[in-house]
Amino acid sequence: MTHNLGTVQRRLTSIIEDFKRARETWQEINSHAFPHANTLTNTVIQSKYVDEAQYWHPALTLEFPNLIQKFDSKIQVLIEKQNRNLCDLVEKMGKQYNKMESQLSEICALNDGSSVKVPIFKTCFLSNYIERMKEIVKMYSLELNTKRSLVSKGIRNILTREEGVVLLSIWINQPSLIKSSLDEWDDICMTEMGFDVAS
Fold first, then answer.
1. Domain tally for the chain?
2. Measured CA distances, 6 to 10, 76, 157 (Å)
3. Model pLDDT for residues 165-196, shown as the tens digit of each residue
4. How many CA atoms lie within 13 A of 35 on its CB side?
């Protein structure tokens, strides 16, 4: 079925606005999750105190013989709770990623062959939007996998404060999201459609 240009423009605008909302929500969740990741990191580091005798005064351990075991038990419960909170937030990010995938499918469905021959707004063809959106969705896929790995294997298994700092840096900086590509997408949408999609 051939879509007329006006219909494609309206539909593409709607899809890109939805894509913008999903990216913004992702970023909000990532920012909200960072303090949780930081707390989990600090709690895991605190749990290492159990194994180090210099943190426990001899008089204290004589007075309270089960202190170390109780501390360890309490800290493990805290780690589990904080990890669950972080897992929930990562799954919310996963929902935003699923929305992005859905929006990519919608934009691909617009490509019936006839709209490829003319620019949709000013200079970009529908294929330009599709290819760039595929690239961005792939970046978010990689970043979601990184977040899931940090939650399932990374943060809970840190051994040193330095290692924790590195993992937290990975969390907040989102290395799979290439800023120049995202900025280029935002610039194209601003130039072609005249609205700001930066998130």
1. 1
2. 6, 58, 54
3. 999 999 999 999 999 999 999 999 998 887 66
4. 4
Residue 195 burial class via C-beta count within 10 angstroms: exposed 0-12, middle 13-18, buried 19 and up: exposed
Residue 98 lies in a domain: yes
Residue reference for tokens 């620019």: 119
Q: 145 in a domain, yes or no?
A: yes
Read off the amino acid at residue 73: S
pTM comes to 0.86
3-state SS track over 46-67: HHHHHHCHHHCCHHHHHHCCCH
Query: Residue 96 has which token pair?
Result: 């935003």
CA distances to 45, 47, 94 from 161, rounded to whole Å, are: 7, 12, 28
Residue 15 to residue 22: CA distance in whole angstroms: 11
Which H or E run includes 14?
Answer: helix 5-47
Question: Distance between CA atoms of 128 and 115, rounded to whole angstroms?
Answer: 12
Place of tokens 């939007």: 129
**Two tokens, residue 103:** 């929006």
Among 171, 170, 159, smallest CA distance to 93 is for 171
Q: Helix, strand, or coil here: 18?
A: helix
Element (H, E) at 170: helix 161-173
Q: Which domain holds residue 13?
A: 5-193
Given a cut of 60, whether residue 84 has pLDDT beyond it is yes
